[in-house]
Amino acid sequence: MVEVEALRGARVVVTGAGGGIGAALARAFAEQGARVVVNDLDGDAARKVADETGAAVVVGDAAQAVPAARTALGGGIDVFCANAGVGTGGGPEADDAVWEAAWEVNVMSHVRAARALLPEWLERGRGRFVSTVSAAGLLTMIGAAPYTVTKHGALAFAEWLALTYRHRGVKVHAVCPQGVRTAMLDATGPAGDLVLAPTAIEPEAVAQAVLEGIAAERFLILPHPEVAGYYAARAAEPERWLRGMNKLQRQYEDLRAKAGEHA
Ligand SMILES: NC(=O)c1ccc[n+]([C@@H]2O[C@H](COP(=O)([O-])OP(=O)(O)OC[C@H]3O[C@@H](n4cnc5c(N)ncnc54)[C@H](O)[C@@H]3O)[C@@H](O)[C@H]2O)c1
């Protein structure tokens, strides 16, 4: 494992760290000698990860985690991982409540955390915001409009933070994996089986990519390196890209029909 000098003794918060990618991030940061706070809505899951890693626990909504995490860490936060997310599927027919939940967790929890953190970081001239976005924030996730739209929002917010505060010591990373073997992937259904599962990686591989991205001070962290090529192809040839994605959509509809679902 890469050793990141900047993380030794760093005060780190990971939201949504009761399982999946967040738990792997908490373990990886603890192994680097960081002091970690594990946040999750699921208190039992958070406590289990914290017990393994010697971390502190803040149970509750990621959007409100900063004050309690600051207290648990004795006053300051060096690294904030905005990792909690919801994998909401559907299209425009999904209820407003579904769209709002995706917006709240996938975007506004990042905004609220940044609002709480920036005064401390700008005063100190130092801070690091690690946003778990998704390849869906660079591309599009078949069958999941609220997820795709809000992950594009999360990426836009991370980019905005990065370029606005770069010269004031605030570092930002946007982590954009494709499939990762977690509870979220298990719940994604035929679209996940088609698009994500074939190249899915373990959460530990995402954590390793994050450590390497921090060591290299890279904004865009791509645990699946091939995503860089897809992103470039989408930008260079949007018509061709859409034709290819529509082909995937039709395969997805066939899979759903076979499973007895309506596309
Ligand atoms: N699994 C994938 O294939 C994949 C791919 C790309 C990006 N991501 C992103 O990675 C992040 C982590 O996802 P995961 O796959 O580990 O999912 P997961 O479902 O395994 O874990 C998510 C954790 O977040 C917690 N959580 C949900 N809403 C919360 C909230 N409001 N406040 C605090 N905790 C909350 C859940 O209780 C859960 O423990 C998400 O942002 C997700 O969109 C996942």
UniProtKB/TrEMBL annotation:
Top-rank taxon, per record: Bacteria
Spell out the family assignment given in the record's similarity comment. Belongs to the short-chain dehydrogenases/reductases (SDR) family.
Coiled coil residues, start to end: none
This protein's name = SDR family oxidoreductase
Q: Does the keyword Repressor apply?
A: no
Name the UniProt key words of this record, in alphabetical order. Answer: Oxidoreductase
Pfam families tied to this protein: adh_short
Q: Which InterPro entries match?
A: NAD(P)-bd_dom_sf, Sc_DH/Rdtase_CS, SDR_fam
